[in-house]
Please model this.
Amino acid sequence: MSRLKLSNRARNTPPSPIRKLAYLGYKAKKSGIYIYHLNIGQPDIETPQEFFEGLRLFRHKVVAYEQSQGNEELCSAWSKYINRTLELNTSPEQFLITVGASEALVFLFMTCCDPGDEVIIFDPTYANYLGFAAIAGVNLVPVLSKMDDNFALPPYEKIEQKITNRTRAILLCNPNNPTGTVYSREDLRSLYDLCEDNNIFLIIDETYREIVYDGLKPLSILNVVPDSKRVIVVDSLSKRFSLCGARIGCLLTCNEEVLATTLNIAQARLAAPTIDQFAAAHMLEHVKPDYLENVRNEFLGRRDALHEALKQIPGVVAHKPKGAFYSLVALPVHNVEDFASFMLSQFSYQGKTTFIAPAAGFYMQNEHGVRKARLAYVLNKSDLEAAVEVLAAGLTAYLKK
Amino acid sequence: MSRLKLSNRARNTPPSPIRKLAYLGYKAKKSGIYIYHLNIGQPDIETPQEFFEGLRLFRHKVVAYEQSQGNEELCSAWSKYINRTLELNTSPEQFLITVGASEALVFLFMTCCDPGDEVIIFDPTYANYLGFAAIAGVNLVPVLSKMDDNFALPPYEKIEQKITNRTRAILLCNPNNPTGTVYSREDLRSLYDLCEDNNIFLIIDETYREIVYDGLKPLSILNVVPDSKRVIVVDSLSKRFSLCGARIGCLLTCNEEVLATTLNIAQARLAAPTIDQFAAAHMLEHVKPDYLENVRNEFLGRRDALHEALKQIPGVVAHKPKGAFYSLVALPVHNVEDFASFMLSQFSYQGKTTFIAPAAGFYMQNEHGVRKARLAYVLNKSDLEAAVEVLAAGLTAYLKK
Model:
């Protein structure tokens, strides 16, 4: 049979850099090696009891379709949650529930952009944005933020230089994955002004909003610009409530045209999962206020433990984040992807190894990431310390090769 | 503020014809009217107990991401289920779990087609195929199947005439939504030969595979062509197990390149919901063999009851389906969409009304559907009979206007 050609876009969709070494990890595990996973943003913190309570309260005899725009109680609970935690005044009609923040971003790329249109992002960036852009046929245009500048927001002019007549939006992740940078009220205001001056959308991915340290408080773009039709917030329960597998995200905007048009796309996929939405609504209504406080404190302790441990390794330079739970770390090797593969396929230390994410995949301009890794501090402190010990041993072995 | 332009593709994405009257239905319900829903393929049959048992057995303390290709136990259980019910020999590695059949089809359009490429479908068609195509930038090319020909598969030559150098696949829904046609082994063989002769993919959506009547047995394309890299099956638990809201679908193929490339796209969206997959795996392993037999018999009884009742209405011509749970019905009105809106917004009979789906949205060549409706017989027999009684009264009132 002659070969069936697949599409160019499919062949050009980059494999997720976070997941592409998964097969090596799988093989290592099958061979009996214990793996410390610092490669993926999958927290080990327990999901709130109230979510499981919600699951048990689902008593319908038929698992029927939910509405395309989302479960009404969930929209209402999410709105109340945001109003309570951020002192805002959103209403449930401004929400569209999606299958994770991922789906919200794919929808927004489609709603805001025709194929070939451009969205400005900041490099390094959440790697899956590249996948969403490939799916939607959108060209991402990176503006570099630098490690020796603490990954600060680049100046207005540097960003504006990248705007063309095909630019449709700026997308910022705040707090940032993978850098952990938390952008200030002034940063957000400046970015909004830039969008206003150039008449484009501002999309803020606030997946990590509640996870901030060192006295910072959660800050939404809606605290800075509460009622602009230019602003779209993407939100998710995945990280702050350890609910990655429930796949519950949303988009939130007061732009009714964006909501109505995105709903047409959302109707084509029918609806997000019924039972997860039901349980999430129950959780948001009933979760204890100190849950997130404990989550924040736990991650703060881990961040500090990770950085103390990394300091002991010669040649390692780590960026200390102000939010989220990732740290970008420069390693004393020429190619971190090669080193990460080595850790999974040729190395173990007392039957254990450490899985790290090479940072090149988080940079559109890959060369800036070749010698860096992203470490997700999603394990408890003693596991983190052990993981870094294994990493240090791995580095020594790798450099001796 | 100057108006922010949305994308052409978003503005051109058709609202789902099944869902676009939803707002009128919502308003009718709020005003206290009871609605018989014949408009949407949401069965009222109870979901197997084994699914809820599976939910209760989920004991992890963290709702973590599932693998991008799907829960291993679910792939394995689904493979065994297919091998058992169809006497086939699939293996779990041939499966990719998706968020409903919807996501599988979007992925396949992206994997098989670049924007502007063509997929041949049969008119009338499942309306959401149009939405998936809009999302993926694919041009669907319809070949008409005719009601007075029992919606049979059009002849080889009629289909081949539509093949151009941009055609990448033929997509068939078997049993068919919205016609209820069940295609024979010979139909499938002929379609496969056509794909072979023209070197294109054959995608069969087998969502309704188990729901067939009048002595027919479930038949997969894999029973006809078990090991062609040209063939991709899309499957779903939604309809046969009353699990629409769990959003569990899959694609199944022995084409490793399709699986690997689609997995790149699937990785960008991370994973399908964890708990639903866990519960579905448990259900497929433990569901009683007579569950589907009972489902089939129940729908058979409903089909017959619906058709007996429709016969009593003057001017109504109904197509009696051999599978799925939809019937296309010609009504004695000039515009069924107008009539369907009337039923929801201006009519009630003893406090009740009937919600039907205008068929125009199921035809790419809309004119063929203007005087038809799709009725989903997803209610129990006495409700169905009552729904048709209300429909008849509505017709009388509408024609008197």
Summary: The domain at 8-46+291-400 of chain B is CATH 3.90.1150.10 (Aspartate Aminotransferase, domain 1). Chain B has two domains: 8-46+291-400, 49-286. The longest helix of chain B spans residues 290-311. Chain B has 14 helices and 13 strands.
